[in-house]
Design a protein that fits this description.
Elements (H helix, E strand, L loop, with lengths): L6 H4 L12 H15 L1 H24 L10 H27 L1 H15 L1
Length: about 120
């Protein structure tokens, strides 16, 4: 067994420290680094980050959703799912409004009635 001269700086345990290396994971990480260093990989990552950041930014700024209100993994998953569903419904609604002028006109009529 190898005795490290700096062992006293790393740990106070009598049995020392055990480091395990997963070679399969290291191979996967190397493959990801290789893919990301290519031009196509870089382009995909930039596009992906813009799409995700746009959604989170929209939720935070436009809908004042800046923090989770529940605790525990299951509750957090549920909350994120509900927020994502609401976001997707809003997107679908906006898309339908753009493709159907009658819906847009109805929305304007409703706004005019509420001003009266």
């Amino acid at each position: 067994m190898y005795k490290c001269p700096l062992r006293s700086r790393c740990t106070k345990a009598k049995s020392g420290r055990v480091i395990q290396i997963c070679h399969e994971l290291e191979r996967m990480k190397a493959k990801v680094r290789e893919n990301m260093s290519s031009d196509a990989g870089h382009e995909i990552m930039v596009s992906r980050s813009i799409q995700a950041e746009g959604t989170f930014g929209d939720l935070k700024e436009n809908y004042r959703y800046s923090r989770l209100r529940r605790r525990g993994l299951e509750n957090v998953k549920f909350e994120v799912l509900i927020v994502a569903m609401g976001h997707n419904i809003r997107k679908l609604n906006n898309r339908n409004r753009m493709s159907c002028p009658e819906l847009e006109r109805y929305g304007k009529l409703k706004e005019q009635k509420s001003e009266i």
